[in-house]
Amino acid sequence: AQQRYATIRKEPALTLCGQRIALHMNAGLMADLPSLESSGAEGVGLFRTELQFLVRSKVPKRSEVAALYARVMDAAEDKRVVFRTLDIGSDKVLSYMKPQDEPNPALGWRAIRVGLDRPGVLRMQLQALIRAANGRPLSVMFPFVAQLEEFRIARDHLMCEIDREGRLGRPLPEKVEIGAMLETPSMAFSPRQFYEEADFISIGGNDLKQFFFAADRENERVRRRYDTLNVSFLSFLEQIVKRCEDTGTPLSFCGEDAGRPVEALCFAAIGLRSLSMRPASIGPVKHMLRRSNLAEARAVIDTARASGAQSVRPAIMDWLRRRD
Ligand code: PEP
Ligand code: MG
């Protein structure tokens, strides 16, 4: 199988019906960057910046943070890297942060909520990103945005830092893209302005799914209880795809499910055109997409949905078995 994936490494993820799906990789450490070349990923769709903070015993200095981002951008050369600002709290706890005794940490003070309430670290991180870009393009994504206003305030912090760097006479990024992760169901129903103002949106499927089904992603008893290919969840994702199509907002999906070939095929069939996954999944997902006709997969999904099935998985698996 490894051999098979190696032969398509430089080929695009082009489906039998001629649709191109962009495949990006998730990363979080400098050590992940060589995979950009070996996996054939088009770029880094999600760089989890919290890993650098998690391995330390205290908050890293701005210069250290900027140095890491610059090395990541250097290693990526002209491929796009989407930096997600700190997503701490919940399952990612910093040893040097005062423990928050929260009854439900996943629903608690985490990610952009911490960034907006205590903007010091967020602003330091944004400065580090601007400095690391040093005249190159910059893509920043805010995690766990649950209402439009949070996105706007986070974006204003970034604009403010760009202004400030400019006044200090430092080189500014050639262009800046500001995106949001869509990880709470609320954003699927947000005002249209969210979709218009975000330069791009990335579905954080791990969190979105846990909140959609009210099933803790960390709890072994329930984490696999609801299928990602459950018709309700697929229809929900499809609504997000439609809203992004209406406003022309680039959309991707960066949760673990994007790296599962059958799930990736179904996501493409309902209209997703960009997926970000762990590097080792790029080959298998690309192989699946290149053998598939999305209109046919879509018809199987629609028939299963109309039949009252709980999940489209049995129908898709049956179709794949007959096909291959
Ligand atoms: C997600 O929630 O799907 C995601 C990509 O972010 P994380 O897994 O880091 O929460
Ligand atoms: Mg998440």
Automatic annotation (TrEMBL):
<protein>
    <recommendedName>
        <fullName>phosphoenolpyruvate--protein phosphotransferase</fullName>
    </recommendedName>
</protein>
<comment type="similarity">
    <text>Belongs to the PEP-utilizing enzyme family.</text>
</comment>
